[in-house]
Amino acid sequence: MSIRSLRATIAAATISTLSFTALTVPVASADETTAKISISNITDFHGRFKYKEDSRKPENSVPGAERLKCAIDKEAEPFGNAHIFTSSGDNIGASPFEAMLLDDAPTIDVLNTMGLKVSAVGNHEFDKGAADLSDRVIPDAQFSYLAANAETVKGTKPYTIEELDGVKVAFIGTVTADMPNLVSPDGIAGITWNDPVETTNAVAKELKESGEADVVVALVHAGDITPDKFQNVDVAFLGHTHAYVNPTGTDTPVVLQAGQYSQGFANVDLSIDRATKKVTVDEAKVVDNATILACDKKYPEIAASVDKAVEQAKIEGEKQVATIDQAFTRGKNEGADSGSNRGVESSLNNLLAEAAKWSIAANSNVTPDIGVMNAGGVRDDLPAGDITYQQAFSVQPFGNENSYKTIKGADFKEALEQQWKPGADRPRLALGLSNNVSYTYNPDAEQGNRITSVNIDGKPLDPEKDYIIAGSTFLLGGGDGFDAFTKGSPMTNIGLVDVDAFIQYLKSDEKKAPRGQSAVGVQMDEPLKAGEENTIDLSSLIYTQDDTATTVTVALEDANGTKLAEASSTIDPALGEKGLGEAGKATIKLAVPANAPADARLRITTDAKTDVFLPVKTTGTGAGDGTGTGDDSSHGSSHDSPGEGSSPAAKGVLGFFGVLAAIVALIGGLAFFNPQFADEIQKQIKALLP
Questions:
Q1: Candidates 1.20.120.10, 3.30.310.80, 3.40.50.2300, 2.60.40.1930; correct CATH number of 519-645?
Q2: Taking Cα atoms as reference points, which of 46, 37, 40 lies closest to residue 78?
Q3: 205-238 pLDDT per residue, tens
Q4: CATH code, residues 318-507
Q5: N or C: which end of the chain has fewer CB within 10 A?
Q6: pLDDT over 50 (residue 71)
Q7: Interstrand relation of 279-287 and 265-273 (parallel, antiparallel or unpaired)
């Protein structure tokens, strides 16, 4: 007998034991006229089967499988075998080290042991591709995986019907139609993803009208769906967005969402008239984390599976792989946990982009121009000090390969525009960028027109130039809706998993310290008015964590980098609107010289290494003649070339007298041949002199 078969046999025996225990509990007071059933639901479990204490905020601790099972059993107790345990998907994937290192096999074992009966597929079920789900995950699962809006996925069903207290309960499973943007496109090639709500409603109608089902329950791996969107559905359990949604009433359809990571579960108790099939919601709620944490009944079978997984992973996980001097963190919202905001720039996301660029150069004969990283692929912070394999793994746990491809500069700019996602659950997904890349944007501009400048290695982006871009197979394959990355040449993989590439980078001698902001929001009236004070509003000046920037400076420079004007301001550290990259704002009053050139640039810097450029136009009495002058104190800028320390005016005077000297010498020569002609020229020159 194989290990997999033995594991399945043990799990099946465990479920039988648990089910037998449940049958000894009296069923709720059902009678010949009314059926009573109970449904529990989890979502976005992500392999969190191990208890994990949060010492800073104990209320945020992860309960783990045993406590979750205990709390679910308490809700199930009055119903006996009229209770069912369900999931809205993402049982696996983006899991902690002890689960992901073993390809989430322990997660499936634990859910089998807990008695999970039916689950929708989530996007993370496809992290390793549809074939992996069909050929490895589903055969090990002792519960049904449902995918009504993607019927071509082998091993799944559109729905399943369970009989509970004599009534037929249909469970329809669907996943967000945004799948092509959420997993590596190659792994789901050929699959059509229909709208989950429309699909659910169509299947529900058939089931109700045919009499095949008395009750319809939707398991939808998508969020932000209101009850009015469902038809012929009695209960809908949502997922994907990791939100908590308590119902506002008990009318059908009732909609709930149970958060994430075993920190909550939804529970609905129903009464069904056996004659009329009328469904009544007796109680609908989301059981909170505190309640789950307080439930401490022991389940030896679950504990054994957890302990085995932890022990297997511990050996590899404890190995030290690197040491770093400074911490790198993710974006966050005000008062929320790290990682809660993917719409802001983060020091860790930028570090991973730099690591992607470095690893391609270190492991191939290709030197990338740009490194990129998606915020959704960054799942844990990186503390200062000794780094273990487990810590590095938890930062980016998806197992993508490092890859590269060539795209046009215009395509890269388009990808930057695609960070904004109007109407999506997350309105912005900020890209991590390698240290040599920066840009400015107008946060209030229309979609597709926000990027106002892009610089690569200190030079403006050339729309027609080919750039080699490095990143994960997920992102360069168009994941997270960045389809601009799919343009250009085919993707080339170097056969290196991203976490291994990251560890190589951490071990290297490369300087690893948080860079300044790659992106700064700039709003102003343009052209700038020469001879007047101009107002410039800035945003996205700081990281949401561990940023030391307190002051921002804006300098007006000419084409040679000569400083013409400068102003500074303190930075307001407020984090700004949730989901948008507006952390840290300032307003600058910049006095533009009257003789500023028509074509100039703004240089925006902070005291925490931010350094970005934006070309600008000026207009006024002296604008447009290219002879703008600055204060002598600005000379010596890092942009000055040797011998360029004099002002343009001084250079003009010196040039005039140099030409004059040459003419005088010429006159001397002419006098030798024609004295009268030379005398006439001298008279004309004297007339021009002051």
A1: 2.60.40.1930
A2: 37
A3: 999 999 999 999 999 999 999 999 999 999 999 9
A4: 3.90.780.10
A5: C
A6: yes
A7: antiparallel
Question: b/e for 337-369, b at 16 or more Cβ within 10 A?
Answer: ebbbbbbbbbbbbbbbbbbbbbbbeeebeeebb
Q: Is the peptide bond before 139 cis (omega within 30 degrees of 0)?
A: no
Alpha carbon of residue 253 to chain centroid = 32
Whether this prediction's pTM lies above 0.70 is answered by no
- The residue to which tokens 């002199």 are assigned: 689
Q: State how far the Cα of 233 lies from the Cα of 214, in Å rounded to an integer.
A: 10
Give 161's contacts (C-beta < 8 A, 6+ positions apart). Answer: 168, 169, 170, 171, 207, 212, 213
Closest CA to 299 of 80, 72, 138, 76: 72
Q: Is the dihedral of CA 471, 472, 476, 480 positive or negative?
A: negative
The amino acid occupying position 503 is I
Which residues have C-beta within 8 Å of that of residue 653, sequence separation ≥ 6?
none
In Å, what is the CA distance from 353 to each residue of 166, 379, 493? 56, 15, 16
Confidence of residue 261 (pLDDT cuts 50, 70, 90): very high
Measure the CA–CA gap between 605 and 552, rounded to whole angstroms.
Answer: 6
Q: Which fold has domain 3-310?
A: Purple Acid Phosphatase; chain A, domain 2 (3.60.21)
